[in-house]
Amino acid sequence: MGKIVVIGSINMDIATDLKGMPEIGETIKGQDAVISPGGKGANQAVAAAKLGGDVMMVGMIGNDAFGADALANLNSFGIDVTHVRSVKSTTGLALILREHGDNRIIVSPGANNDWPDDLPLEEIIPAASIVLLQNEIPFHVIEKVVEVALKHNVPTIFDPAPVEQFPVAFLQKITYLTPNESEFKELPADILQQKTEAVLETRGKEGVRIHRSRGKEVIPAVSVEVKDSTGAGDTFNGAFAVAMTNGESLPDAVQFANKAAAQSTTKVGAQVGMPNLEDITNTK
């Protein structure tokens, strides 16, 4: 098994349930707040580690209690945190307000936007078997990571969430893109003409549509009783990275990731719901 290097965001999530949103100047009572580790980068690292992956997390935290908790959480899953740095900014926070089943989320990136220039990417990336990225850190950092990975022939996975108008030349350097159905519609049609081997369009209950230069293939979804879909996309990405570093074919890797994502929805909570390897082994 090769090393999976996850370069991305580390947050703490604070969630509460409300009976109604407050008006300007109004104070209302919510339910007890739930504080839990989050951030797409950290979520994907945990998903991969729980499935047996050899994972290194590269990211930024603040020199505060939330940062200490986030670091301890990554350590608890056996993730290499050598390059998780504490910076002057506060740890990234996501404030999640739930009302009648709907979410309103406010993200304060904090330390996720505070990346130093001396990060030794030329040491970190060549030692990786695959690099996993998301769009919750500064884009110039993502671009630099992709350039170094390309230079050293290290494959990359990019989860383009939150989606924006990415330069076509950048997208064409990514090995595997993993947009959901709505994000896929925002991507240009010609990205498969260069270094991109496949675009994996995740479509929920409709499975995953693999787009390759020679055509399309659909990997069906796994039917489960869904309790909470939070973190399913992050689970898919982490599981896909594990399968690829284990030498699986692309369709088999997607099928494995599908099973992991499905299992993650059967429990409440993002990282809590992420499956272990035995959970996938027992999934039909």
From TrEMBL:
GO annotation terms (biological process): D-ribose catabolic process
Gene3D superfamilies xref list: 3.40.1190.20
Keyword terms: ATP-binding, Carbohydrate metabolism, Cytoplasm, Kinase, Magnesium, Metal-binding, Nucleotide-binding, Potassium, Transferase
Cofactor note: Requires a divalent cation, most likely magnesium in vivo, as an electrophilic catalyst to aid phosphoryl group transfer. It is the chelate of the metal and the nucleotide that is the actual substrate.
Active site per database record: D234
GO CC terms in record: cytosol
Inhibition and activation profile: Activated by a monovalent cation that binds near, but not in, the active site. The most likely occupant of the site in vivo is potassium. Ion binding induces a conformational change that may alter substrate affinity.
Pathway: Carbohydrate metabolism; D-ribose degradation; D-ribose 5-phosphate from beta-D-ribopyranose: step 2/2
Protein's name according to its UniProt entry: Ribokinase
Species this chain originates from: Listeria weihenstephanensis
Cofactor(s) required for function per UniProt: Mg(2+)
Reactions listed under catalytic activity: D-ribose + ATP = D-ribose 5-phosphate + ADP + H(+)
Stated role: Catalyzes the phosphorylation of ribose at O-5 in a reaction requiring ATP and magnesium. The resulting D-ribose-5-phosphate can then be used either for sythesis of nucleotides, histidine, and tryptophan, or as a component of the pentose phosphate pathway.
Protein localization: Cytoplasm
Binding site for K(+): D228, T230, S264, K267, G269
Gene encoding the protein: rbsK
